[in-house]
Design a protein that fits this description.
The chain is an all-alpha fold. It has helices spanning 2-21, 32-167, 170-187. 92% of the residues lie in helices and 0% in strands. Helix 1 (2-21) crosses helix 2 (32-167). The longest helix is centred in the middle third of the chain and has 136 residues, at 32-167. The chain is rod-shaped and about 190 Å long.
């Protein structure tokens, strides 16, 4: 940095001189005394500016350096706080994800239990319906058999009655009545 400043200080008068004297007719070339005067003038000006800058600028630069250091410390503290906050948020997110997984697993297990319970209840209801239907069928079958038996008996009695009426005349009926009376009389002890 000092080399750049020194190079600039030494070259500035030459550049300024070259610009001021370039291409003008009627001017005499600069002498060494002109150059020397200009260099001394510039050196005094640069020295005064350097002195003022060191005297008054040093405090500004020191304050600025301190301010920058303070801001860097604050930025580092904020960075650490942000990292801590991020870690806390990531932990909360991880816990929430675990809670969500647990809730989903619980809901799935509950659904499985409910499904099994519904299937079991359905099977029981089916068995009850089958048992009830079998009982009802057996009842209806027994009732139908009884009705058929009664109808068969009635038909048989009707057919027997018709046959008796057709085969037995009044003489035959009188004879059967007398035989029956005789049988009854024999069985009586008087």
């Amino acid at each position: 940095m000092k080399k750049i400043l020194l190079t600039t200080i030494l070259l500035f008068p030459q550049i300024a001189y070259a610009v001021s004297t370039g291409g003008e007719a009627g001017h005499a070339p600069a002498t060494i005394s002109d150059w020397l005067f200009r260099i001394i003038n510039f050196a005094v000006l640069a020295g005064v500016l350097g002195f003022l800058l060191l005297k008054f600028g040093k405090g500004i630069f020191v304050k600025r350096r301190i301010e920058i250091e303070r801001q860097l410390r604050e930025a580092e503290e904020l960075k650490l706080a942000a990292k801590k906050r991020l870690a806390e948020i990531e932990e909360r997110v991880r816990k929430k994800e675990e809670e969500i997984k647990a809730i989903l697993e619980d809901a799935r297990m509950s659904g499985e239990r409910e499904k099994a319970l519904l299937i079991e209840e359905g099977n029981k209801a089916r068995q009850r319906l089958e048992t009830h239907a079998k009982g009802r069928i057996e009842q209806e079958l027994a009732k139908a058999k009884e009705e058929l038996y009664i109808e068969a008996v009635n038909l048989a009695m009707g057919l027997a009655e018709k046959k008796i009426k057709r085969d037995f005349g009044s003489k035959e009926q009188d004879r059967l009545i007398e035989e029956y009376i005789i049988k009854i009389g024999e069985k009586r002890p008087w």
